[in-house]
Amino acid sequence: MQLRHSFRLYPNAVQQAALARAFGCARVVYNDAVRAREDARTRGRPFPTAGQLSRELITDAKRTAGRAWLGEVSAVVLQQSLRDAETAYRNFFASLGGTRKGPKLGAPRLKSRKDQRQSIRFTANARWSITDSGRLNLPKIGAVKVKWSRALPVTPSSVTVIKDAAGRYFASFVIDTDPAADAEWMPATENTIGIDLGLTHFAVLSDGTKIDSPRFLRRAEKKLKKAQRELSRKQKGSKSRAKARQKVARAHAKVADARREFHHRLSTRLISENQGIAVEDLSVAGLARTRLAKSVHDAGWSQFISMLTYKAERYGRTLIKISRFEPTSQVCSTCGVKDGPKPLNVREWTCTACGTVHDRDTNAAINVKQAAGLAVTACGAPVRPGAIPARREETGSHGFPTGNRAA
């Protein structure tokens, strides 16, 4: 399984200028590739192959006066930019043909120099290295200072340098996980759990545990409003507006970092303590179009479930998603009688059949667990195994295998 570990970079002024050149050259090559394919489409000609684009847009372009500056950056960065364009078209055609899951994708678009997030990728061919002093040595950029928060378990196959909207730099390494080490770090257990996600409480577990919702966005709203109000008063195109924009981006990044950290810690805890986990397959996109949209986005359920998914795959756990149409809030978890829908303000109710008094959320969590077939322990076999697609990414920085990247 391939995952990512990300670490903060601190390039000096000269290195920042070199990275800016690399970002710009990669963007130009990507845009040239998109234009070449669009020209071929409008003229009714076959799409140029990757080899033709590499020769025309990189090798031959470096010999021209208008593109001579492409030689100032590593050729691997330019080749990887072409591969990104190739992947974008491949995904677009797969989406058109219906062979790609998820929402429909549009045709690749030109990148703008004003895009707030920029990245370049170095593979092993670029001969990047980590120095004895712990710096990341990148070709034609130099040895960049890295904030190492953990040791890399294996030699990475590639590194991606990212500059985010807040002006921060990160190095993202692709690594292959070791199944034996993962199994040793997180041994099997007999516990199973059902999870009911909500807004009043972020999660209520079938054992009665209630995890409060931190509401990171709500708590930061006052500061965000002030920063955005200051941004709106700055003249467009001025340096003060650029500074104010970055201040807003840093404020939003702080909220996103805190939310991601919370999701990582909670998902790691649930995966380590339970062999089987059941959750509802919520329609977050639909809920985000209601009057609760801000609270739904603030909770970040999709990100949390995604973390549970790939961590379950990595550590040999079973994650079961039950249908969102399962009436978990209407059924008595004791006798199984369906008591009908209830308004959201009803947080506790009594079953008319058996007289059991239920906490609404705890009862729903128990029903989620029972609907998934996790009523007995994981060693008793009702825990249904299944192929769970692992997320090919792990944002990591803290001292446990599923830490958080500050981005």
Find the structural class using helix and strand composition. Answer: alpha+beta
Low-confidence stretches: 375-407
Strand/helix succession: EHHHEEEEEEHEEEHHEHHHEEEH
Helix fraction, binned, reads 25-40%
The strand order across the widest sheet is 2-6-7-1-5-4-3
Number of helices: 10
Distance between the ends: 23 Å
Mean pLDDT: 88
Q: Compute the number of strand runs.
A: 14
Cα radius of gyration in angstroms: 25 Å
Shape: elongated
Query: What can be said about the biggest beta sheet?
Result: 7 strands, antiparallel
The fraction of residues assigned to DSSP E strands is: 15-25%
Gist of the model:
This protein has 407 residues and is of the alpha+beta class. It is built from ten helices and 14 strands.
Identify the notable features of this structure and list them briefly:
17% strand; 407 residues; seven-stranded antiparallel β-sheet; single chain; alpha+beta; five-stranded mixed β-sheet; elongated
Break the fold down into its secondary structure elements and pairings.
Elements: E1 2-10, H1 13-42, H2 50-59, H3 75-97, E2 118-123, E3 129-130, E4 136-138, E5 142-147, E6 158-163, E7 169-176, H4 179-185, E8 192-197, E9 201-205, E10 210-212, H5 216-232, H6 239-273, E11 276-280, H7 284-287, H8 293-299, H9 301-314, E12 318-322, E13 348-350, E14 357-359, H10 360-371
Helix pairs in contact: 1-3, 2-3, 5-6, 6-9
